[in-house]
TrEMBL record:
<dbReference type="GO" id="GO:0050277">
    <property type="term" value="F:sedoheptulokinase activity"/>
</dbReference>
<dbReference type="GO" id="GO:0006071">
    <property type="term" value="P:glycerol metabolic process"/>
</dbReference>
<dbReference type="GO" id="GO:0071222">
    <property type="term" value="P:cellular response to lipopolysaccharide"/>
</dbReference>
<dbReference type="InterPro" id="IPR018484">
    <property type="entry name" value="FGGY_N"/>
</dbReference>
<protein>
    <submittedName>
        <fullName>Sedoheptulokinase-like isoform X1</fullName>
    </submittedName>
</protein>
<dbReference type="InterPro" id="IPR043129">
    <property type="entry name" value="ATPase_NBD"/>
</dbReference>
<feature type="domain" description="Carbohydrate kinase FGGY N-terminal">
    <location>
        <begin position="77"/>
        <end position="279"/>
    </location>
</feature>
<keyword id="KW-0418">Kinase</keyword>
<comment type="similarity">
    <text>Belongs to the FGGY kinase family.</text>
</comment>
<dbReference type="Pfam" id="PF00370">
    <property type="entry name" value="FGGY_N"/>
</dbReference>
<keyword id="KW-0808">Transferase</keyword>
<dbReference type="GO" id="GO:0005829">
    <property type="term" value="C:cytosol"/>
</dbReference>
Length: 282
């Protein structure tokens, strides 16, 4: 599984590196106060306590790298949907808004949970592997015309990883023969279908300042459950986010990713009116 993760991410980075007309483009540094990357990001977590320190996007949710533009008709957007059961991708003309190429594939990523039938979990490496397969159906000429990524996917879910796993070199060096990927593995993806947070447990959690009612399967509820029942497991990681956030962090080499307000709201404990996480939660 580790080798599969390495192969998949290196392929994606190589396929999507921003080389246009022989000009190298350096990715801007992430800003946790702005929506720097596409519909994604993450939530930095203190695994030693039940207090979550999260950074959310506050404006646009699409990252458009500054790249050399050969001509206006050659610019394509690669759209990626990491769904619960399948991956769907499309190459869309940025001018006409019409799809040029599409691909879809069932992920078959469900795995057995250690907590039994209440757990609903997926293998994130398998999801990225299927994404690899979908993108492989597009020819290199079309991929070379990609100037923007749009990433969406299943909401509410949560997975964990270490920041050093995703913070690897600037994009201009991706795909080089000298690049060696760190083989630290992420956790499983606990999806929105998860049923581990029972009504009694949810009632014991701090009240949320949010327009949405907290429910089982929501990211923050799942993290609270893990803080109570799997604290040692939590201590292995320092980042949490959705599968989309993880993908963007990998592709962009982020140490402090961001999360869109839509995804943040789906996790719970997020106020969409002032675009901020609830503070002082313990």
């Amino acid at each position: 599984m580790t080798d599969e993760l390495v192969t998949t991410i290196e392929f994606l980075r190589s396929a999507l590196n921003p080389f246009h007309g022989g000009r190298k483009v350096k990715m801007p540094e992430p800003d946790v106060n702005k929506a720097t990357f596409s519909i994604s990001g993450t939530c930095n977590m203190n695994p030693g306590s039940r207090l979550l320190n999260c950074a959310a996007a506050t404006s646009s949710t699409t990252h458009k790298p500054t790249a050399y533009k050969k001509d206006s008709t050659s610019r394509l957007v690669l759209s990626i949907d990491l769904g619960t059961t399948s991956i769907k991708i499309a190459l869309v003309d940025s001018i006409t808004k019409k799809p040029l190429k599409t691909a879809a594939q069932v992920t078959k990523a469900d795995i057995e949970s250690q907590i039994g039938l209440d757990g609903c979990e997926q293998n994130p490496v398998q999801i990225l592997h299927v994404l690899h397969q979908c993108i492989s159906t597009f020819d290199k000429e079309h991929l070379s015309r990609v100037v923007c990524l749009a990433i969406t996917g299943q909401m509410h879910g949560v997975m964990l990883w270490r920041s050093e796993e995703t913070s690897k070199k600037e994009l201009s060096s991706f795909g080089s023969s000298s690049h060696k990927w760190n083989k630290q593995e992420p956790s499983q993806l606990i999806t929105w279908r998860d049923q581990r947070c029972k009504t009694k447990f949810l009632a014991c959690l701090p009240p949320a300042d949010s327009h949405l009612r907290l429910a089982t399967g929501h990211g923050c509820a799942t993290l609270f459950w893990m803080a109570r029942h799997q604290r040692d497991f939590l201590k292995r990681f320092d980042c949490a986010g959705t599968i989309m956030d993880y993908l963007v962090s990998l592709l962009c080499g982020l140490t402090h990713p961001v999360m869109s307000p839509q995804i943040a709201a789906s996790w719970g404990y997020f106020n969409t009116e002032n675009v901020s996480w609830n503070s002082g939660i313990s």
